[in-house]
Each structure stands twice: as C-alpha cells, then as structure tokens.
Amino acid sequence: MKLNLKAIYEVISAVKDYLFSYQKISKKFSKINDESDLKNFIKEKSAFVTQSTLYGYLKTRMGLKQNLMFTDDIFVESVNKAKWNIFSEAVTDLTFFSISFLNNKYNIKNLDTNKIYESILENEIANGFPKEMCEKYKLKFKEKLNEFNIEDYSKKTPFINSCNALFHWAPIADELKELDKEIVINSIKNKWMLVVSDLEKIPINLK
User: Fold this and answer.
1) DSSP for 49-111, written as a single string
2) What is the pLDDT of residues 151-193, one digit of tens each?
3) Chain Cα centroid distance, residue 86
4) Is the separation of the CB atoms in 43 and 91 below 8 Å?
5) Alpha helices of 107-206 — where are they, by DSSP H?
6) Which of 17, 50, 62, 197 is the most exposed place for a label (fewest CB within 10 A)?
7) How confident is the model at residue 58 (pLDDT cuts 50, 70, 90)?
8) Is 82 exposed, middle or buried (CB count within 10 Å of its CB: 0-12, 13-18, 19+)?
C-alpha cells in the first residue's frame, strides 16, 4: 500500500507540537489587545487541547504499537480526520466560552462571534484542514449560535462539544473506548481547566 506522505507529515508535526510543554505554549500569550490576539489564543489553545488529548490517548492505548501511526496509511488518515473534527469542536467551545467570559468579566459585547470562528477555521485550510469539513462546521456553528446565551454559557458546561468529539472521533475500537470513557472525558476537561486559568490571568485590553 502506498503511504500518504502528506497525511503522515501532518501527524508527525502534530505529535511534535503535542510534546511541547503547556508552559511553553502559555508563554506565547502575555496579553490580549485586539481581536487578532483573541483569535490566535483560541486557535492555539484549541490545537493544544486537541493534540494533547488525542495523541495522549492514542499513545496510552497503543503502547509499543504507536509506530503504527507512521506506517499505516489508513490509520494515519483516520487520525487526521479525528484531529480536524475534534479541533473544530474545540474551537467552537473556546470561542463561545471566550465571548461569554469577556462579556461577564469585562462587559465586552461588540465581538462578532461567528466572524471569529469562521476566520480561525478558514485560516487552517492552508494547514490541511479539508474545505468541505470547514464548511460543515461553519454551518453547525451558526446553528449553535442561535441558541448561544452569552451570559450563561461560560457558567455551565462550556466544553461539552469537544469532550464528546474526542470520545467519538478517536480511532480506537468502540469496546475499548467504552472502558476508557470516564478517563478520556476527564483528560480533556483537565486540559480545558488550564486554558480557562490562563484566560482568567491574561491582561485583556480589548476595546
């Protein structure tokens, strides 16, 4: 079977990013002064949560067989598909959470939620994000936006979409995922707690 070198390169690059410490990623964000800073924060943190939980789960489940990620074309494709689906939901969660958080803490109400989300996803097309998947999630986001409560969102269960996406899309046998469900969900919740803590501490100067 001929290997998809582009897909394999994307997996290797993502694993490399996953291996970076969270502290190193956090140092990139000393403040948020404008919408561009906010979009970068949402994108980078969503990518970190996606990669660290997905690849962490795969590494734990596969053990010594993890080299399969780099040699099996079909598996690599499934990993990339999982990555982009989980990332899209992670960006959904963090976009809604950030907008709600900024409204409640700083009374910032003039941000275009849909524009921020679409811009983040569209910018990832150059990094391998499938266009058809981008369009699908843009439509899903607009539907969710109709039910978005800016005051309540950050106070309830703001990261449920990405939690469910990790469990659903991870390329692990269903019977094994059922055994792992609580651990998998808790792992992504813990990563989101780090992100929330960062957002609470970063100086915000959005006008």
Assistant:
1) HHHHHHHHHHHHHHGGGGGHHHH-HHHHHHHHHHHHHHHHHHHHHHHHHHHHHHHHHH-----
2) 999 989 999 999 999 999 999 989 988 899 999 999 999 999 9
3) 6
4) yes
5) 113-123, 131-145, 160-169, 174-201
6) 197
7) confident
8) buried
